[in-house]
């Protein structure tokens, strides 16, 4: 199976998570900010999922899985500790739904990579299911390099890029300016502020 990395907008989409244990909790955390309509199907749920349900941030149907639970689901996540149940969710999945199977990734068509964010910067690591622990180790390492300074830095890059792109400068000159923004010293917030002042001045000229 060859997997294709993809950034996906789940806003307003129905996402059904079957099972309410530790893995389901990790997926709920992954998906909370996505704007997806989350429904957890499970007779019991972890405390954190319970408190999110109490806050109205997800739906919880306190029951055992039935095929109708998947109606209109865009993404289905199978995460029970019962292999017979997991298999029946796989069988009941409509052919065009996205499916993630926590107990056997190859039975699904999407996988969750190890992932962290610093503002708009999003770093994902996958071993195509070979070693989740290696992905977690690499994530930890990259997190120390791409630390909390990168949130502001990527915002600075965004603002600068908009100014450069909307300027009258020649394309070649724009590219040189964009490349220059990647200098390590621009991680410094003071340098960012000064550079933005310069760019605004140059572009208004
Ligand atoms: C396909 C994938 C995702 C998907 O479900 O879509 C998947 C699948 C499976 N994981 C399994 C086991 C474990 N997974 C973890 C942990 C993590 N697993 C994560 C990702 C992924 N795991 C995706 C592939 C990523 C890649 O390509 O590298 C991490 C990185 C991110 C996250 O989950 O958010 C998170 C670390 C979070 C962190 O610490 O940062 C641990 C350790 C632990 O729990 O502490 C164990 C036990 C040890 C072991 O088995 O190695 C099993 C066997 C289940 C069984 O035995 O029944 C399967 C199924 C199979 O192998 O088919
Ligand atoms: N993909 C991954 O990263 C990992 C996957 N796993 C796999 O994921 C599975 C789940 O692991 P955990 O979340 O740790 O298990 P868990 O034991 O914490 O949770 C299982 C959940 O399934 C629910 N459940 C049981 N029968 C059900 C039914 N008929 N209908 C609906 N819900 C039902 C239970 O109420 C419980 O909430 C494991 O069996 C394992 O195969 C385990 C570790 C990591």
Question: What would you note in describing this structure?
Answer:
Helix 5 (149-165) packs parallel to helix 7. 41% of the residues lie in helices and 15% in strands. It is elongated and about 65 Å long. Strands 3-2-1-4-5 form a five-stranded parallel beta sheet, with helices on both faces. The chain has a two-stranded antiparallel sheet with strand order 6-7. The chain has helices spanning 22-31, 47-54, 83-92, 132-145, 149-165, 171-180, 189-204, and strands spanning 14-18, 37-41, 59-61, 75-78, 98-101, 114-118, 121-125. With 205 residues, it is an alpha/beta fold. It has two domains: 1-112, 3-Layer(aba) Sandwich (Rossmann fold), CATH 3.40.50.720; 149-204, no CATH class. The model has no long low-confidence stretch (mean pLDDT 96). It has seven helices and seven strands, in the order βαβαββαβββαααα. The longest helix has 17 residues, at 149-165. Bound molecules: ligand SHN and 1,4-dihydronicotinamide adenine dinucleotide. Residues 18-24, 41-45, 64-65, 79-82, 85, 102-103, 132 line the site of 1,4-dihydronicotinamide adenine dinucleotide.
């Amino acid at each position: 199976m060859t997997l294709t990395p993809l950034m996906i907008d789940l806003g307003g989409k129905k996402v059904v998570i079957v099972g309410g244990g530790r893995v389901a909790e990790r997926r709920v955390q992954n998906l909370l900010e996505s704007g997806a309509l989350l429904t957890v199907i499970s007779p019991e749920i972890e405390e954190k999922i319970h408190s999110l349900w109490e806050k109205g941030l997800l739906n919880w149907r306190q029951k055992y899985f039935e095929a109708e639970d998947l109606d209109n689901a865009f993404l289905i996540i199978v995460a029970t500790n019962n292999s017979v149940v997991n298999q029946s969710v796989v069988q009941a999945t409509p052919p065009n739904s996205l499916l993630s199977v926590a107990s056997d990734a190859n039975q699904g068509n999407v996988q969750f990579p190890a992932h962290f964010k610093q503002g708009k910067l999003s770093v994902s690591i996958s071993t195509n299911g070979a070693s989740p622990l290696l992905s977690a180790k690499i994530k930890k390492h990259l997190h120390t390099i791409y630390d909390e300074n990168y949130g502001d830095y990527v915002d600075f890059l965004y603002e600068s890029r908009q100014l450069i792109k909307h300027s009258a400068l020649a394309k070649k000159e724009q590219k040189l300016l964009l490349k220059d923004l990647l200098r390590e010293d621009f991680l410094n917030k003071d340098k960012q502020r000064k550079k933005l002042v310069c760019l605004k001045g140059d572009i208004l000229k």
